[in-house]
Amino acid sequence: MRFLLPALLFSCLLFSCGPGDWRIYSGADFTIEFPGLAKDTATMEGELAGAEVYFEPVSGGLDSNIYYAVSFYSLSDSISKLGDDLDNIFRDDVKIYAWTMGGVLSDSGRVVKSGKYEGREYKVFLAANAGTATVRKFAKGKKLYTLLVITDKMCLDNTKIERFMESFKLK
């Protein structure tokens, strides 16, 4: 009984102030929730601009995912005007990602939403059965958004993937 109180206090401290604290990242066009403090990068070349906001959990920590990211690219013309061709562009973009990782696109993409915006979600099996990547794609005006969670092979379905993906809100 005398060890119960210290153990309870330790577990409350561990879960309340550790790297598992979900934080909202607010960009100019979107908000998303990361399971820790996100970092960002940006590139710009002429009219084209891109940025990535990412979070890498501590190796061996409580988070079973390896990497969380949202990236977006500004294009010279509106991508959302492509209609049915947009599905093919999303799928081809994920195929290229899978190829660069030595992985395989495992599905044709399921329909997902962020508010009124429709997108697609794909699963990519990584090389050497190392895990999976869950990828979501959205287009709004001249911007293409990609959400990514890379998961270790032992923890393929977990609630943190869904929480991250569902927290993405286009403004």
Explain this structure.
Helix content is 23%, strand content 42%. The chain has helices at 4-17, 85-100, 159-167; strands spanning 23-26, 30-34, 39-45, 48-55, 65-74, 104-105, 110-114, 117-125, 131-140, 143-152, 169-170. The strands form two sheets. Strands 3, 4, 5, 6, 7, 8, 9 and 10 form an eight-stranded antiparallel beta sheet that branches. A hairpin with a 3-residue loop joins strand 1 and strand 2 (30-34). The longest helix is centred in the middle third of the chain and has 16 residues, at 85-100. The chain is globular. The relative contact order is 0.17.
Short description:
Helices cover 23% and strands 42% of the residues.
Radius of gyration: 18 Å
Overall body shape? globular
Mean pLDDT: 83
Oligomer: single chain
Compute the number of strand runs. Answer: 11
The largest β sheet comes out as: 8 strands, antiparallel
Q: What share of residues is helical?
A: 10-25%
User: Would you list the SSEs in sequence order as H and E?
Assistant: HEEEEEHEEEEEHE
Spatial separation of the terminal alpha carbons: 51 Å
Layout of secondary structure:
Elements: H1 4-17, E1 23-26, E2 30-34, E3 39-45, E4 48-55, E5 65-74, H2 85-100, E6 104-105, E7 110-114, E8 117-125, E9 131-140, E10 143-152, H3 159-167, E11 169-170
What are its keywords?
single chain; 171 residues; alpha+beta; eight-stranded antiparallel beta sheet; three-stranded antiparallel beta sheet
